Structure prediction request, 792 residues.
Amino acid sequence: MRQLCFLARSVLAFALFIVIAAAAYAAPDATDEIEGTVKDALGRPLAAATLTLKSPDEAVVGKVQSDADGSFVFSGVTPGVYAVLAEKSGFEASTAVVTVEAGTPATTTLTLTAQEALEMSVTAERLAQARNSLSPKTGGSEYTITENDITSLPQGQETPLNQVLLQAPGVANDSYGQLHVRGDHANIQYRIDGVTLPEGITGFGQTLDTRFAQRVDLLTGAMPAQYGYREAGVVEIETKSVFENGGRIDLYGGSHDTAEPSFQMGGSSGKLNYYLVGSYLHDNLGIENPTPGPNAIHDQTDQFKGFGYASYLINTTTKLSVMFGSYDGFFQVPNHPRQNPAEGPFGTEPLAELGITSVDSSTLNERQSETNRYGIVALQSSIGSDINYQIAYFIRNTTVDFTPDYTGDLVFDGVASKLHLGAISNGLQTDASYHLSDSHTIRGGFFGFTENVESDNTSSVFPVDVNGNITGGPFNVRDNSSKNGNTYGALYLQDEWKALDKLTVNYGLRADELDAFVKAGQLSPRVGLVYKATDDTTLHAGYARYFTPPPTELVSPKDIALFEGTSNEPSVTANSPVLPERSHYFDAGVTQKVVPGLTVGLDGFYKIIRDLIDEGQFSEAPIYFPFNYSQGKIYGVELTGNYKSGNFAAYGNLAITTSLAKDVVSGQFNFGQDELNYIATHWIHTDHDELYTASGGVSYVWEGTKFTADATFGTGLRSGFANTDHVASNTSVNLGAIRQFVLGSLGPFEGRVAVINVLDKIEPIRSGTGIGIFAPQYGQRIGFFGGISKLF
Prediction:
């Protein structure tokens, strides 16, 4: 532990020194710059190219690297004539002569020719465009986050994916890395290169690594027919897929004993492309702190992530891709000190039955471990110039194991449950498009998978009498189950019709079928319109009928009869099965280019729901279990803005959302009777409802150093009896700086520093009250982080 702490602090100190020193270094009388761009022979920007600036006597004046946009800047250059040499592995070097005049920045563009033919790159890019043509986004709302946008965040690629998505409009933050998009609980679908991954038991926002993303699109609203299964938000991740030989090694760390080494490497050989990324994270804030203090008690985590990608061009029209990912997480569940056993549901009776006098709540030892493995094999090809298709097989295995503190949990809760959840899922997805004419593109496909789910629960409980008094020592109750579930028949067919030069209509039909804890199905029509009124104004509108299966891997058909006469007997014995959600979704919006570089958007939505699916944590294990409200309605509006000019970029989002529900119709045993009675006759706010959310950020490149800041704001998630209250608002502001530099013969490096929650605000996430809320939770207090990266 001391070694990790020392490493984290050393990395932070060194990175801070490097960034400040590099930013400050410039000749005192030199104020001019040389700006430029490096491109390949196809006109595409080349990142990580080494630029060397030489004077007429061949003296090296400076060295920099091109960024993700291929841009570079030499700062502090005195007037005169210089040579700029551009070099990159796999390319021929290129030189440009530049004249710098006093008070006038010089500009240049360098083109590097590949040492090998560009045929593979051209083919790969054409196939990527063909794959994207399989997934139109007509009628819905789309928010794009590029690799450069991720790099511009204060923590860059070390930013967890869920924190990256918080920069999109209408996304609310919750505990355990959960996200809520437009007032829905979870219900987020993740796609990697167009292939849908069945969700796992653990939070996907934590298991996917930001580092392998070249681009992330968040799709919401009334989406076309090929998007089903999970529809609150579709996260389309486009992987890095065409690589020059090279990579990077990163050391990152800082507050809370954070140490996060990682590596990335990629390359190409003939028709083969490959990419690997791996990371390890250790810190003392694995799960949100149950107290508002800066440090949690008993909250260490160790997490291992890996991702691999390989593609092989069989011929100029066919590509075979293989992807795999792995995640292992080990968590201590944080403790809430100064709890009084006498205030538990059974007072001091458990202490007497256990033969002890007291328990210190700060010394409990609850633990949880999680695993997640997934793999994808995809074949993409074309038939002629008008037909494109992709066939993909996927498999995923995920587990969660929770180990209680038997004495402490029995004393404070009257039950201590050892829990194992496991799910193995595999399936097939096919997508095809046919360019019928200049006006019509037909698309169709299939998505289906099968799951084998197991739930093993061994609970230590006390016997109780009819009055609820404990009558003896603890004993074990086993409640184990397994289930095979199938989601199949997810067929879709749609037509993208260019009705007018400025109007595109996408209409289609989707058929879904579910056979798991319940059997159900639905035909779902979809229609979306995009009207480009002018070159600067685009309007969209859409309607979608959605069918959302419950998360089978979380459904635990609890045998309530097993717990009769025990300290874990619920006050309500009804336990109806969890149902699929059915909804009507309406969406409309406009995007406007106000001035060059500035784009704003306005979007409104309304969702009418039957059997709304929600989830809650109803026990000490930090795992969510689903239930249904009979009715639901969600509505809101979003405002977005993006601006970029030269070295300056900024974005901002504001969303107003209301999520209401009525009448619990499944999993009733998790509730008290008084709360069930109230919800049956009142529209209530769902626990994940947050009225206002906002996010924004800026970045500016000054003398070769990129300074960046971002912020998020929320008015607070719900709390109290039947969610009639809400927690306090939360605001987090983060700052960062990043700079690339060359250390002599050691070559290019990159230094980064970041300050998270720079205002050191107390960030309440949960109060410990509300539907399905088990414990209070707070966001991270101020933290100082830094990293150093070796590029090769």
In short: The helical segments are 2-24, 119-132, 147-151, 161-165, 204-207, 349-354, 406-413, 673-681. Residues 127-791 form a domain with the Maltoporin; Chain A fold (CATH 2.40.170.20).
